[in-house]
Amino acid sequence: MARLDILLSRNLGWSRAAAREAIAVGSVSVAGAPVADPRTEVDASRPLAAIVDDEPVQLFDVARVLLNKPLGCVTALRDARHPTAYALLRDAPLHAELRPAGRLDADTSGLLLWTTDGAEIQRLTHPKRAVPRTYQAALARPHRPLPAHLALDDGHRPGVSELTALARDEAHPSLAIPADASILASITITGGAYHEVRRIFAALDSHVLALCRVRFGDIDLPRDLAPGSYRLLS
User: 64-232: what fold?
Assistant: First the structure.
C-alpha cells in the first residue's frame, strides 16, 4: 500500500504540500470517487488509475522500463559532451527516480533496463548473481575457438556460457551490421566488466565492428522496438 499524496508528488512532480491540497479540495478521484484524506492508502502494486483535475493519470509506485539504446548515446543521467540514454526516457513514469541496471557504452546498442527499484538493480548487476547477458556481434574476422580457460590482457577471466555463430537472418534489427563484417556471433556472458565482450573477441584474435545486447537475465529485446524507443515492463 502507498499513500496517495506521496504517489501524486512522485508521479506529477508536485511538492507534497501541493499534492495534499489537491486531494483536500476534491481534485483527485480514485475508482470513480473523490478522495478527501491525503493520507489515504491505495493499492499501488499495479499502476493506479486516477483522475486529477479532470484528467486521467496513471500513478506508479515502481517503474521498470526497457530501452532500446541507440548508438551514440551514453548510459548516464547527464553528460556535457554526449547525448544520454536517460534523456530518451523523459516521458516515462517516475522519470526522476529511474536508474540503469548496468551500462552500455556509446558504441553498443540494445537492451538497457531502467528501474526505480534499487534492490532489483543490485540483484541484476552484482557479480555474485552472475546474471547472464546475451550480445550479438558483427566481427571483422572469424574468431578462434573459445578455450576452456580464457584470460584477458589484465588477467580477468570472463564467464562465457555460450559462444555461437549467428546467421544474418537471425540477427536483431538493432545490430548495425557494417558492410565489411566477416561473420556474426552470439555470445552470452555472466559478468559486466568494462568492454568485456570486445575484449573477449580481441583475446580470440578477432575484432568487434558492431555490438548489440539482446537479452539481460530473462528479458529479451523485442525485435519491433525501434532504437531510441522504450517499453514499460510489468
Answer: Pseudouridine synthase (3.30.2350)
